[in-house]
């Protein structure tokens, strides 16, 4: 089960963007994800009239390692670790490690 999913609100805990919050836009693979407003780089793009693409300098988000982010806990207003718990009916749910409270998907 993925502990961090697309659409989750996360906080960067290490690196040049430490402390920034953002929403997970996509998961690249098991260990990399793209977070809105985090790890932004300038990319120089050549114009391509065949595709209707204009040239210039674009700013885009690049992938960040999943170990560098933690899920944002709205109750405590801090970053929190995530665990997996099996309920009595057999469903697996994500829970915050600090409080044990279930994370709504």
Quickly describe the structure.
With 105 residues, the chain is mainly beta. The chain has strands spanning 9-12, 21-27, 32-35, 40-45, 56-61, 64-65, 69-73, 78-80, 82-86, 92-96.
What would you say this structure looks like, in words?
With 105 residues, the protein is an all-beta fold. The chain has a domain at 9-74: SH3 type barrels (Roll), CATH 2.30.30. It has no helices and ten strands. It has strands at residues 9-12, 21-27, 32-35, 40-45, 56-61, 64-65, 69-73, 78-80, 82-86, 92-96. The strands form three sheets. Strands 6-3-2-1-7-8 form a six-stranded antiparallel β-sheet, with no helix packed on it. The chain is elongated and about 60 Å long. The mean pLDDT is 94.
Low-confidence spans: pLDDT under 50, at least 5 residues? none
Number of separate strands: 10
Shape: elongated
Alpha carbon gyration radius: 17 Å
Query: Count of helices?
Result: 0
Sheet bearing the most strands, described? 6 strands, antiparallel
Q: What is the terminal-to-terminal distance? A: 13 Å
Calculate the mean pLDDT score and round it.
94
Mind sketching the topology for me?
Layout: E1 9-12, E2 21-27, E3 32-35, E4 40-45, E5 56-61, E6 64-65, E7 69-73, E8 78-80, E9 82-86, E10 92-96
Antiparallel strand pairs: 1-2, 1-7, 2-3, 3-6, 4-5, 7-8, 9-10
List keywords for this structure.
single chain, 105 residues, mainly beta, SH3 type barrels, six-stranded antiparallel β-sheet, two-stranded antiparallel ribbon, 45% strand
């Amino acid at each position: 089960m993925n502990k961090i999913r697309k659409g989750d609100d996360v906080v960067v805990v290490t690196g040049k963007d430490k402390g920034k919050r953002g929403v997970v836009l996509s998961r690249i693979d098991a260990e990399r994800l793209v977070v809105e407003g985090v790890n932004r780089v300038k990319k120089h793009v050549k114009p391509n009239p065949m595709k209707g693409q204009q040239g210039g300098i674009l700013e885009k988000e690049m992938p960040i390692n999943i170990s560098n982010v933690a899920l944002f806990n709205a109750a405590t207003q801090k970053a929190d670790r995530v665990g997996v718990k099996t309920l009595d009916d057999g469903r697996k749910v994500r829970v915050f490690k600090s409080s044990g409270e279930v994370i709504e998907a």
